[in-house]
Design goal:
The complex is a heterodimer. Chain A has a domain of about 220 residues: Rossmann fold (3-Layer(aba) Sandwich). Chain A has 20 helices and eight strands. Chain A is of the alpha/beta class. In chain A, the strands form two sheets. A four-stranded parallel beta sheet of chain A has the order 2-1-3-4, with helices on both faces. By secondary structure, chain B is α/β, with parallel strands linked by helices. In chain B, the strands form two sheets. A five-stranded mixed beta sheet of chain B has the order 3-2-1-4-5. A five-stranded mixed beta sheet of chain B has the order 8-7-6-9-10. The longest helix of chain B is centred in the last third of the chain and has 23 residues. Classes of the chains: A alpha/beta, B alpha/beta. Chains A and B meet through helix 20 of A and helix 2 and strand 8 of B.
């Protein structure tokens, strides 16, 4: 469903803040006819609308947080999670990021900083996003996220909390982080109201979604792959916010059914799959031909992307906080870069990819800092590696022609390897 | 079989005609604002030089940043692959190619068959490209040929600290105002370009023999400075600015229309 032409014609800022907008859009989704192959898209869209409607209506206290904070934490605390970085991607996809980036820039937010954060701060400065009751940042992965969320807390004048996450994770660190979360839940209970029953329900929903996600990842190892990277990197919003809710379970159940059916009916995501790629980090979310050209025209399907890699165990409701702590500490993007490189190598083998593309998002220190090690690890394994420089949100930081030339040249390298004797798979 | 390679670059458009795999003719003209028109003109001129009629051409391959603006082409291949193929055909011992064009620079590693093994391109700004030299030549009121001569004759160099072309131009203007010798400023500019190329070479690794292609390869000062840094001779094929178009024409020989 392409909403872009309609959004540009509306006084969208006024309507964006009105919960009724999301109610009306939700009703309209009943007119959206889907079959079993794409019902998950409607499920994701509807879930997103419901979340926004609830947040703007302030049905529950709204907790702003950064991506990679397990959403189960916020749901279990009793809040509604709102991730400005996810909102930035949605806004960018509607072509509306430039005004928000400009707002952040006018408020001393340098263009050298991550555009997810600049756009997120723009949402706060223009008062477009659901107003937070609490802002909670987690210190793993990205220091820039902590700083911009602190700036947002200043804008709104709301309490700001930081979960300090140790760099490397062992039993002692898990215990330490779990205790920190437990103390936070006690402190926030009067405001958010989370309790043991809620934690049990969140754990149950999270584990169900995880089980479906594991099945989905298994199906994606098939050749041809049933899911496109372009869609997977769009639906990452669900992964960041929905697990722990019935909506999250429903989405992954529908997605599993769709992919299962596609495999059974031999209806792959992309009809002609010449190459399989592993995608690291995110993609451009503003209107850009990059991914569709890569997958649909050049036939290089993104077989898997590291963000969907399930590296965590099921949650035990009786050890809820330590389960979440272990998950955060076990994130391959956090801690030593060597751990991420090993996971990349594991995914290369599991998904039998021909090459690896790291999307080097402008200003992203946490991901780009690992590139030398990722490159040398892939080179050591004989896997071609492309560091594709660009920007996920700010279109001004990336020329589409430059990106397409790099991608096309990379595919020509892969083609040369396939036509020669040294191709692998 | 007659094949043609057309390389539509940001500054110049080139075409090379091959008749049964042998050099037939070539053309080189300024790209200007009309990519499509320049591509067509380059094709027509190269065919005229080769004495070949258009209907006799079996396959045309377009390359360069404007490759999508050649509707007559049967295939589009990136300049990375074309420079690899073309340079390897001219200098078969080449394993590392440094191509510096008008708006970007690349380092390409090829195998013993001229197939690209790895490559790296400059980042988004124009520093370290032909455009950088053009802007600086204008600021110093000289031409590209004159810059190379002056750089080779300089006894010292003025360090250029800015990596951005616009800021570097301001820096150059300041040095001129300070009365620094023009040849030393120019030498500093050449070294700034080679700094960038050296970093790119470090990324993909240097395997001899090293060759340089693209319009900037005509600048002996850059070629010599790069060779001095690498401790290797940097080879330059004949007509280095035509190598991409030549490679495209070679690829056309193996392609079907």
């Amino acid at each position: 469903m392409n909403l872009r032409p309609y959004v540009s014609k509306l006084d969208w800022q006024k309507h964006l803040r009105n919960p009724r907008t999301y109610g009306v859009l939700e009703i309209l989704t009943y007119l959206w006819r889907t079959g079993p192959l794409d019902a998950h898209r409607k499920a994701a869209f509807r879930w997103g609308l419901q979340l926004l409607r609830r947040a703007y209506r302030r049905e529950r206290p709204v907790v702003w947080t950064n991506v990679y904070t397990p959403p189960e934490l916020i749901w279990a605390l009793g809040g509604l999670p709102f991730m400005p970085e996810v909102a930035a991607a949605v806004v960018a996809s509607l072509g509306s990021a430039p005004a928000l980036l400009q707002a952040a820039q006018s408020a001393w937010y340098s263009t050298d900083l991550c555009s997810f954060h600049r756009c997120g701060l723009g949402l706060a400065l223009t008062n477009l996003a659901p107003r937070p009751d609490v802002i909670l940042a987690t210190g793993h992965l990205c220091d820039g996220a902590v700083k911009f969320l602190e700036a947002a807390a200043e804008v709104y004048g709301v309490p700001f909390y930081v979960l300090h996450v140790p760099y490397a994770g062992g039993v002692r660190e898990v215990r330490w982080l779990a205790a920190e979360m437990e103390a936070l839940s006690r402190e926030l209970r009067p405001l958010l109201g989370g309790d043991e029953r809620l934690r049990a329900s969140v754990a149950r929903n999270s584990n169900l979604a995880r089980r479906y996600l594991l099945e989905i990842n298994e199906l994606r190892a098939r050749d041809p792959t049933p899911w496109s990277g372009q869609e997977a990197l769009t639906q990452v919003a669900v992964l960041f916010m929905a697990p722990g809710t019935p909506g999250g379970v429903q989405f992954y159940r529908w997605l599993w059914r769709a992919l299962h059916l596609r495999v059974r009916l031999n209806r792959p995501a992309i009809p002609r799959q010449r190459f399989r790629l592993l995608w690291l980090h995110f993609r451009p979310y503003y209107p850009s031909p990059t991914l569709s050209w890569l997958e649909r025209e050049a036939g290089a399907v993104v077989a898997f992307e590291e963000v969907h890699n399930v590296t965590w165990d099921p949650l035990d409701p009786h050890a809820f906080w330590s389960g979440l702590a272990a998950r955060m500490l076990g994130n391959p993007l956090w801690g030593p870069a060597r751990r991420r490189a090993e996971q990349v190598l594991h995914l290369v083998r599991r998904y039998r990819v021909d090459g690896v593309v790291h999307f080097a998002h402008w200003g992203c220190r946490q991901s780009n800092g690992a590139v030398p090690l990722l490159q040398s690890t892939c080179a050591g394994a004989g896997v071609p590696f492309l560091n594709l420089e660009g920007d996920c949100i700010d279109a001004r930081n990336a020329g589409p022609g430059q990106m397409l030339t790099r991608l096309q040249a990379f595919l020509e390298v892969l083609e040369g390897r396939k036509s020669g004797d040294h191709g692998r798979r | 079989m007659i094949t043609v390679g057309v390389d539509i670059g940001s500054v110049t458009t080139k075409a090379v005609v091959l008749v049964h795999g042998q050099w037939g003719g070539a053309s080189l003209l300024a790209t200007g604002a009309d990519n499509r028109g320049s591509a067509e003109a380059a094709l027509v001129r190269a065919l005229a030089e080769a004495g070949v009629k258009r209907e006799e051409v079996a396959v045309i391959v377009a390359t360069g940043y404007g490759r999508i603006n050649a509707p007559f082409a049967h295939r589009q291949v990136t300049e990375i692959t074309c420079h690899g193929k073309g340079c390897h055909a001219l200098l078969p011992q080449t394993r590392t190619i440094v191509d510096v064009g008008g708006q970007d620079s690349k380092v390409i590693r090829v195998d013993d068959r001229g197939r690209v093994v790895d490559f790296v391109m400059n980042d988004k700004c124009a520093a370290g490209t032909g455009r950088f030299l053009e802007v600086m030549a204008r600021a110093l009121e000289t031409d590209l040929g004159g810059m190379a001569v002056l750089a080779r004759g300089a006894r010292a160099s003025v360090p250029i600290s800015s990596t951005c072309t616009v800021f570097a131009e301001s820096e150059v203007v300041s040095y001129v105002a300070q009365g620094r010798p023009k040849e030393e400023i120019i030498r500093g500019l050449h070294e700034a370009i080679v700094d960038r190329l050296e970093a790119m070479l470090g990324r993909v690794g240097v395997e001899p023999a090293v060759a340089m292609t693209g319009g900037v390869a005509l600048n002996r000062a850059i070629v010599e400075e790069l060779g001095r840094r690498l401790g290797l001779e940097v080879h330059v094929p004949p007509h280095p600015q035509l190598v991409g178009a030549f490679g495209a024409a070679l690829i056309a020989c193996t392609a079907t229309a």
